[in-house]
UniProtKB/TrEMBL annotation:
UniProt organism field: Hypsibius exemplaris
Stated name of the protein: Gamma-secretase subunit Aph-1
Keyword hit for DNA-binding: no
Pfam families per record: Aph-1
GO biological process terms on file: Notch signaling pathway; protein processing
Length: 265
């Protein structure tokens, strides 16, 4: 039973991420390198936040304190990775086999770079968040007894990990675009929403799982839609995807063509 629970929660948390990696990232070695590099930046933020937590002894028992500073450091290192990628952009264009660079579609390539870097950020974040929970699930013990009620914690942890993997993915798309276009309100949206959903997870300590799961899911849908529009998405493109027709063959003017407009840094 414990082994089944282990694989079930692991697939809930990382199954969609594994599919995303196989379809979007694995085919391009440059994207794999960017994913690993972004994960390393997240680890640096974890190292600094851990050092800060150890240094401030009186507040070590205040989980909210460590959480807030961890989020702020993650966003600071997200900005650091953005600056690093912009400095390395010309080199990436020279060595990458990505068709977007070959077509000189700089804006679209930047959105994909942000998507991959955010996914790396979220993947390593999710791994560190869930690894201890998965280790406890292997046993000894049995999950799912009605008298316990702790089985909700394991599923909640797995589902929140899934949400945070893709939240980080969408946040990076919004964050990078906000930096490129100097739309600082988008950067503020990323930081505030990150703080909000992270603080909501504190409710799980009181077993208020629904109070955290529902708002986090709504935020995921909202930032996902925002990242979709920023990257050039529109209802027209969704229709084209579902009908398996090119977007230019559908009626109506094109909308949301952000990806076709070059942005300056």
């Amino acid at each position: 039973m414990t082994l089944l629970g282990f694989f079930g929660c692991a697939l809930v948390a990382f199954g969609p991420a594994a599919s995303f990696f196989a379809v979007v990232i694995a085919r391009d070695p440059i994207r794999v390198i960017i994913l690993i590099a972004s994960g390393f930046f997240w680890l640096l933020s974890l190292l600094l936040s851990s050092g800060l937590w150890l240094a401030v002894v009186p507040l070590q028992k205040q989980l909210a304190f460590g959480l807030v500073f961890s989020v702020l450091l993650q966003e600071l290192f997200r900005f650091g990775f953005y600056k690093t990628m912009r400095k390395a952009e010309k080199g990436l264009q020279m060595i990458s086999e990505d068709e977007m660079y070959k077509d000189h579609n700089q804006a679209k390539a930047r959105h994909v770079l942000a998507l991959v870097s955010g996914f790396g950020y979220g993947l390593i974040s999710g791994a560190f968040a869930l690894i201890n929970v998965l280790a406890d699930m292997i046993g000894p013990g049995t999950i799912g007894l009605r008298s316990s009620g702790e089985h909700n914690f394991f599923f909640t942890s797995a589902y929140l990990t899934l949400c945070f993997v893709f939240l980080h993915t969408f946040w990076s798309v919004i964050f990078f675009y906000g930096c490129d276009a100097r739309k600082y309100h988008l950067i503020a949206v990323v930081v505030i929403s990150h703080l909000t959903v992270s603080c909501l997870t504190l409710l799980n300590a009181q077993k208020l799982y629904v109070a955290s799961l529902v708002p986090v899911t709504l935020v995921l849908l909202a930032v996902g839609a925002t990242a979709f529009v920023i990257s050039g998405g529109s209802v027209r493109r969704w229709r084209a995807w579902f009908t398996m027709k090119p977007a230019d063959q559908l009626n109506g003017p094109p909308r949301g063509e952000f990806a076709n407009t070059a942005v300056s840094t």
